[in-house]
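Mods, move this if it's the wrong board.
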Amino acid sequence: MSLHWALICHGLITLTIVVSFLCGQWRIFQGTPISSIHRFLTFGAYQYFLRFIGAVFGDRGTNLILSVEYYCCDRPNPILQLIYLAIIGTTYYIIVKTSFSYIPGYYLSEAHRYASFLAIAVGILLFLVTSFSDPGTVKADNVSRYLSAYPYDNIIYTEKECPTCKIPKPARSKHCSLCNRCVARFDHHCGWMAFPSLHLWDNCYWIGSCWTIERIANCACFNSLAPYVVQWLLDAHNTQILLMVFMGVVSLLLAGFFAYHANLCLTNTTTNETFKWQDYISWQKKLIEARASTAALKANIAGMTTEGKPQESKCKSFFRRSLLQDTEAIVKKNVYDKGFFHNLYEVVFPVSTRASFLHTKSKSG
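Not the wrong board. Structure tokens:
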């Protein structure tokens, strides 16, 4: 029975830490222990570590840590790529050492060994394709092509020049401060790939990760016979069941990430544009509320200064709709959302990879 409780505690602790780290900043968790754990994991623990280093080694030690932080977090580097490969390699090694001795068995064929290796190979292949693909660098020789491909909507994108690159800034593009280049249809700078990512390759990476972890978990816990195998693992092989719980939690999180990015792909929206739309809608709401407040104030003043008119009954005044409630709804006008198939085509075949774009580029060169 103690093993069962240890397994439950392991799963709950793993889930709490992962959810706190990734989702602790959400509004729904404000004022909860999840938010406190998130602040400790993302800020507090590092600050305590810096204080400890400063107390023991002085300013020289603190400056060394800060320089390492600058290289790891503020400059393109392969550290996260190596960590990802180490996680996949270590997990697969543990699975091989602890579970492959039972394959083939009475219930499992030898195909599970090859299936897990294929999953690892596909995941790493998609990861490498993602890491070494051009995200769509905007340069002086191809900026005109991007300007024609992505027109300004004059809502969240207006005509302007990149102050760093000194070239026109196409709509949907952004200058990445970490890579020091302008990127067309900028989504976000992904540290796992060390450059700004496109939705296509970003989702290839997440698909590969989900499938890799699912297949490893399938080999680890023998999914087709879960009830019987789990009971056996609880009694005799707790390593496999602990790995299964950990990878199950990670698989759910990766599935959530994939669903989020798939929704962005199908609506032809980038992560960067999501934040831009949030800022725009928030600003519009404040503007409309300010106009409504001004109108309500003018109406009250006019009512106070009007003479000779019969006063409105208290009952009618009570049920009269406030001007603040008559604010118009804000509509998100995404001009780049041109339907399911067009959106999918733009994601699968980015502008920078199309033959027409490459032909125009070679002509201008």
